[in-house]
Model the fold of this input.
Amino acid sequence: MRTLRNVVGAVLLLSITLVGCSRKVTRIDPSEQIDLSGRWNNTDSRLVAEEMTRSILNDDWIKQHLQDHNNQKPVVIVGMVTNKSHEHIDAETYVKDVEQSFLKSSKVRLVQGGKKREELRAEKADQQTNSSASTMKKFGLENGADYILQGNINSIVDSQKRNKVVYYQVNLELTNIQSNEVVWIGDKKIAKQVRN
Amino acid sequence: MKATLPLVSLICLFSFRGWSQDLAFDQNPNYKQSQDKYMRMADSLNRLHGTTLQETYKAIDYLADKQEAREKRREYRQQRRLNNYYYDWDYYNYRPTPSRYSRYRYWHRPYYPYSNNNYWGSLPWAVTFGLLCR
Done:
């Protein structure tokens, strides 16, 4: 009886040790808020995307453009976002949501920029020599953008021993390429307190 | 020939005039200087479309700085071990002496170079075997 008790106790202890040391992975909803380290995370990106999308599509600049240009929809190209914060943050996680909202709303047209545009032109160049004459795409027929979307990310960190307050300010602005006029500025402020 | 020469000159004059861009309303006549300057640098800047330029700074954070100092100390000790730091210098007797990492320092005991001299990690195993052997 005593031996049996000892064996059961040993097996239990061994199983607890092994289970405690094993890794568990659980799938969660991307919109669920889980803050682990206090650094920039997916929740912050989602909040910024939601606020920017809401602001840019409901502002007056679209109406003004339609009035000035005979009801032609504005064409936007995405420019550069500068991260001047204290962490590595990639703006594409929320800028892509804004681009997607442009297309879904059908209020704004989007043109490709950057390396993807170079890839398109390279494909066009390849077609000049290799594609049939009827399917070959021509140079010089791209849609020129009316506005460029640029932005920056700033942060302020206030820390004292084990307590820290981190403040992020994310700005996006839309500028008329012809006249340099800024027609829209959106911002989202996020503050977090981290206690260790 | 004499009659056609002025006609040819007039035709040439008007065709050359067509090559230059007519100024739009209120356009600065010196636009060409700016255009030439930015035509040269357009490609290098346009390649950055859709990207994030990382111009981060290092924030003052007490805990992060402490952690960084701890990791630097560990790395320093690891590098010292890797460089075969076997000998210190005995200044009193003016001779080399085995360092604390040297296998010759404790010649009477087995040599464990990376041991932390604690066995907490094996406690569950020890208890398990202890219970089985009772």
